[in-house]
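Forgive a beginner's question, but might I ask you for the amino acids of a protein and the tokens describing how it folds?
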Amino acid sequence: MEETKQFLSKMGLPDGDLHQLPSSTKTFPDGAQYRIEIPSVEGPAAFQAVVDTARKYDVSVHRISQGSGIMLLTDDEILEMARIGKENQIEISLFVGPRATFDIYAQPHTPAGKSIGLRASGMDQVIYSIEDVKRACRLGIRGVLVADEGVLWALNECKKAGELPADLVVKVSVSMGACNPVSIRLMESLGANTYNVPTDLTVAKLAAIRQAVDMPIDLYVEVPDDFGGYVRYYDIVEIIRVAAPVYIKFGLRNAPNIYPSGTHLEDTAVKLSRERVRRARIGYDFIQRYSPELKMSSLGAAGIGLPLI
């Protein structure tokens, strides 16, 4: 076993989960250790609710993410979200629309086949996914969310070839499922700019992942029920200390899964968005109570994928 550990160490990988919990020396480009993300912001009304509630609770929101997919937003809705994001210096990360669970396949809905989940099934879905991203970028969006390794690689090749903006922030979804330092380093090599790790990782496992990669880690500290339902507010300061740079992400337990959303669920989406921001204020208070020296980015800081309008 020692030979294997030594071999991996030579490649810059940890020789195990880091139970000694070393402090991360890595930061965002502005020198900050953490930022705040609000997920499941399904459309402009929910986004405006995030902005208004963040102002009410005096809490910074650096990124919002959406789950229903670019393809289920109208051009006007995307343009309105881009406007709100630009005016408030918030990154918008829109999910690529095509996915196995939206198509006609049976396997994603079977107990043993759920791992295919939000991946692109077949080459047509890869092409549709790239088209979805191109459309979002034409409308000013500079952040997208993917859950397929092939789509991730293809988007990175598009960026390198000038088919997509070089400053596009490609975020990998928690649904991708890579959960160890080697797998997550692979995601980084494929073009991930920020990676949403699985929800159930210990602080020691997060520390090991941080040693292996430089990109920001995104982590739910309150987790939707269908991803485990954990509520980890007392872990926040240790998570930031060992995993920086990290996006602290506030989902909601005891809340419905509303994907795909739309006007039929807009009232629910707005209410959920408001409560997620209130939870973010609670999380921020934990940081100020126990480790106020931890540095948070200002809005619009370097590396945030602000919309272009």
